[in-house]
Amino acid sequence: MNTAASPRIGLFWFASPQTFFPLAGKMVPLFSLLAAGLLLVGLYIAFLVAPTDATQGESYRIIFIHVPAAWMSMFLYLVMAFWAAVGLVFNTRLSSMMATAIAPTGALMTFLALWTGAFWGRPTWGAYWVWDARLTSELILLFLYLGFIALQAAIDDPRRADKAGAVLALVGVVNVPIIYFSVQWWNTLHQGASVSITRAPSMATTMLWGMLVMALAFWMYSIAVVLHRLRSIILERERRTEWVRELLREGRIK
Amino acid sequence: MLRVLLQVIRRDLLLAVRQKADVLNTLFFFVVVVTMVPLGIGPEPNLLRAIAPGVVWVAALLAAILSLARLFANDYADGTLEQMLLSSEPLTLIVLGKAAAHWLVTGLPLTVMSIVFGVVFDLGLQETGVLVVSLLLGTPVLSLIGAVGAALTLGLRGGGVLTSLLVLPLYIPVLIFGSGAVGAAASGVAYAAYLLLLGAFLLFASVLTPWAVALALRISVE
Fold first, then answer.
1. Is B216 near chain A, with CB under 8 Å?
2. I need a surface site. Which of A28, A64, A116, B35 has the fewest CB within 10 A?
3. Predicted ipTM?
4. Which sequence spans correspond to the domains of chain A?
């Protein structure tokens, strides 16, 4: 009841769902605002400032969505595995909830990277899809995310779901580099695509800036959405505890 | 230590011999899947020769997945698995034994059967040899990685489909290098590197996966 009366904020103070819930509530609007602001600036640079590409024309502008999404998709998998591992080792519920909250956003980013990649590939290579090493690895990453989500969805007991997901995420993390390099070797062996996305022309600095701002915007968006989802997961899992009931009684959450 | 390992393998082999249908069904499945491919794409010999390694390997993957369900399910149902978890012997060793037994009743028969497919798809002697060696090195990895998926999905509804969803993406490196080795042999390139990498995967998996399986089993049974 009076845990809030002891304000000795250590490293593990916010490791409890009860203390993290209000903090996350404050962080969500902050990061949403940052995301919206950066997105406006990024899109402004992307559409109005950045010059038209000499070889690809206007179609290259999809890079401002595509590259940040691809970055986030890979980075979020690592973050997810990190929190899952922390949850497995220290048995902290919040860390596991964090991993669960990250998975859908990671999958979304992977899907976005693939989808925008297809639309970018059509005008530049003449095909929506080529079996390029990067495209294939990204597709496999999507499978890994979906496997994680499916496993957790199939388990009714949340603690078992947390731990099983953590084992899967860790096995996945060990495998990701192996998969990546084997797919690359497979691609060079089969010599499928005659076009390569690795030989990108050197970029104008405004393009780079636009991409960096957009990447930051994607970061902020991911943080905001993940924290919001985390709050929902906390409420769902802790719905029988006294503090959640109190919040409900006071009408502070709708 | 070695005695425990051998004892677990012996027990699982004995169980497999008593229930021959399970083992034979997996092998039959493998044969039927491979047979369907020429019927689906036509009897053109050059085309079939080119895709044979990939077809055989994909069918082996599917057969391995199909047989994963019985790796722990029966022991889980009759309580043997709990005894294994409580045992004073290291669980990783027991798990390794079970994976080895699983390979002996699925991977090894598939490997032997692939010789026939080498003949049927008109592969040369060398290509068939490489195919057999690649399966010999690769299928134990399938059993080991598959054991992680089987342990994680133990007792879940829709476990079989879920296991394939979890495990198939992790099988990709084995598939690539397994069929790659045969492809390289067929086009006259050096194929030793592929087989060496498969061997590396096998060592890597046999060291690391037993821990993951043991952990997953403890999570699933607790």
1. yes
2. B35
3. 0.87
4. 20-47+60-194+202-249
